[in-house]
Amino acid sequence: MVRPIKTIQLGKNGLTESFILEVKRLFETQRMIKVQMLRSACRDKGMAKEIAEKLVAGLGSKYGYKLIGYTLTLSRFRKTLR
Hints:
alpha+beta
């Protein structure tokens, strides 16, 4: 059975330590998570890319991302990337 991808929203508080911890907690049961960045969190796509890079850096080396518009798809790899 295929599990649906969990989707969370990043709002006006922006990228906080508690948001990063929530994403880490979700990855205990998920392999892929989508983060929808609301307009109150970032103004343009350049800022969305910065947020994506900071979030992945906060998660660790075994996570990757793909940014399409204002939707960030995070995935966890089985092995740590170098």
